[in-house]
């Protein structure tokens, strides 16, 4: 069964084409990932699916019915979107999660019951009376998820649901996404630029770049095909493409250019794309003797403060993104232009 | 005794003895300014929501217009309103001139630009994505707007308090359209002016009314400051480091 259908959608903001002739079907009950670098048009596509933005041209159908300006308000009751930037009403957790249910004019008792269940699902049981402002970033994102899923809409739209979160919160959120898809059969469309997430969570992937969908398919298929488009995904954190050769030790060395060679624990030959999760990379100020096969020296070229975490871009010939805690960051006295060593195991290298 | 010191002593007597003339004036001042602030909020807030949430051509011109009107000299506005309410004026048929209604309406007009400007800024400060969040959770257009207004509530309340303060402290409008009729349209500012001009023993009334006016204005300002930054309270009574 088809839940939503997009045909020949285009959308411009000023002179820039954000979406360019998008045609896509969303099947009932599936998780579809929109995978692409920043600026590919993922968020705009999600907003159109949430009936918050309307396309300049093209058609959007939901459950067989064309979406128009007139019925958008009614259609919106069938979908809910979780935004990338955690936004919340400056009030309690309860009032945040209950917001949509109140809009739907449900009886007080039911609202209370449903909010409780939703909070249990995102592992924030008993948080009702807390102020959202005082929660951690990860907890806030879980409130945002609970606030959307409590509505039990047919369609749930997630914009980078785990971007910039620590592994514990990522795990909880991924679990919840899986659970509600399985148990409530909620259809989900999820924007991500996390290769690993795209590989494991969704049933289908749509690759996006420059406002276009270049490929749609099941993850195994998409990753196996290694299209030129996927190779150009170097814009996605820590994704590199190069020529691989198998070493005498049975591992694989991938030459990704600029003198950088990554060693992976699997065997591949020829053109290969690899991906390293930022959390898997250890940052140190001095060279460490360890079993890790990959050690690179580079300069910090960008520092991004994410609250309890700090994201660093390190240039080792190629640009790597790493994520460390705020505490480590200040203890190591890191600055822009500091020299650091990046260390990761061959088994942390995921061959796409 | 020095007539000024005598006046100040008499003023405190008037304040603490609950002098009916003094408290009648205080009551009218509070009432007129209160109604004016409420009226300005009633028509100013929707305009602020329009300016804060919608995009349309000439929006910055409208905003600039209201911003520049904040500094409108009260006497000039008083005169314009006087002409409007006078027999030959466009609203002369209402017979409002020299009535409490004229004072309240006039002061409401005076403080409207203030309400609009401050409330617009507060609404614009709310994350623009907030309206989308409300909508995706099932709010209608108008419910979503109200949600944004709630997020901006501090700024909106601040705009109302500031407008009340401007209304109670102004002289020109109340004097020119109210006529300073004792017991009917006279308020703190118009009476301070009247009693000062009379001088002599009436000076005590002017001083008493001034003290009360300042207490009201400073009190409200203090509430605003504390409400915007509760930490201010904690710094009281702490010696500088």
Short descriptors:
heterodimer; A: 352 residues; alpha+beta; Rossmann fold; OB fold (Dihydrolipoamide Acetyltransferase, E2P); 6-stranded mixed sheet; 5-stranded antiparallel sheet; globular; B: 241 residues; mainly alpha; MetI-like fold; 12 helices
Description:
The complex is a heterodimer of chains A (352) and B (241). By secondary structure, chain A is α+β, with helices and mostly antiparallel strands. Helix content of chain A is 26%, strand content 36%. Chain A has two domains: 2-225, Rossmann fold; 276-345, RNA polymerase II/Efflux pump adaptor protein, barrel-sandwich hybrid domain (OB fold (Dihydrolipoamide Acetyltransferase, E2P), Beta Barrel). In chain A, helix 4 crosses helix 5 and helix 5 packs parallel to helix 6. The longest helix of chain A has 17 residues, at 167-183. The mean pLDDT of chain A is 89. Chain B is mainly α and 241 residues long. Chain B is globular, with a radius of gyration of 21 Å. The model of chain B has no long low-confidence stretch (mean pLDDT 91). Chain B has a single domain (3-229), classed as MetI-like fold, CATH 1.10.3720.
